[in-house]
Amino acid sequence: MAEVDHHHRDVTGGWLRPAVFGAMDGLVSNSALVAGVAGGSGGRHTVLVAGLAGLVAGAISMAAGEYTSVASQAELATAEIEAERQELLAHPGPEQEELARIYMARGVDPDLARQVAAQLSRDPESALEVHVREELGIDPDELPSPVVAAGSSFGFFAVGAAVPVLPYVLGAGLLLSVLVTLLALFLGGAVVSRVTARPWWFSGGRQLVLGGLALAVTWVVGNAVGGVAG
To answer: Which residue, 26, 143, 178, 217, is most buried by CB atoms nearer than 10 A?
Structure first.
């Protein structure tokens, strides 16, 4: 019999999805901030300070939010795993039958489902892992790390947020900042196509349009507010 050899893409996106989207978040939000301040007739120094402040504040906010979110998720998962452990200790028979019914619902013959459930229930830790996976959809060995999530969010957001600020650091102004930002938006969107079914030019163009719209709107708002305040 010929051996079937085919591979699927990682539908969760793996590390690429949070990395790209974190960087894109920093890029869009901080470039919009820079455009808004520049539109309000802010001088180069003012825009630079605002951009750097937006980078630091945004990265810290992203890291704090991600840490809290992932920590809460991990704590809830741990609590549910412990609750399932106690159920297995207190009611091993009903829990084994529950596991068998899960396999029956998936089309396994009742007798075979009960045999599989009985075999898996021989080792308490293995039984716990199976129950947690089947009932809760949790992999107890791969709970996310809040520290890693926070560090990744901080770093990738900062990388994206640095793009529109860098031209000001080098002595340039809004025009170069916008051009560099638009290029980064397109490239970032093209990279996103790695975890989608869209062609690279579509993902890149879509991100370019959305990010460009954010830049334009904030520049107009900044210009209007600057004119009134001035």
So the answer is: 26
What is the pTM assigned to this prediction?
0.81
| Other C-beta atoms lying within 10 Å of the C-beta of residue 229 | 8
User: With helix as H, strand as E and coil as C, how does 15-31 read?
Assistant: CHHHHHHHHHHHHHHHH
Neighbours of 18 (CB within 10 A): 16
CB 218 within 8 A of CB 32: yes
pLDDT score for 230: 57
Tokens 């039958």 belong to which residue?
97
DSSP string, 6-63: -----TT-TTHHHHHHHHHHHHHHHHHHHHHHHHTT--HHHHHHHHHHHHHHHHHHHH
Cα–Cα nearest to 155, from 18, 14, 11, 5: 18
How far is residue 28's CA from residue 211's CA, in Å, rounded to a whole number? 6
Measure the CA–CA gap between 16 and 147, rounded to whole angstroms.
18
Cα distance between residue 53 and residue 137, in whole Å: 40
More confident residue, 8 or 173: 173
State what percent of residues in the chain have pLDDT above 90: 63
Give the residue from 28, 22, 16, 13 showing the smallest Cα distance to 185.
Answer: 28
Pick from 1-10, 51-60, 206-215: least confident:
1-10
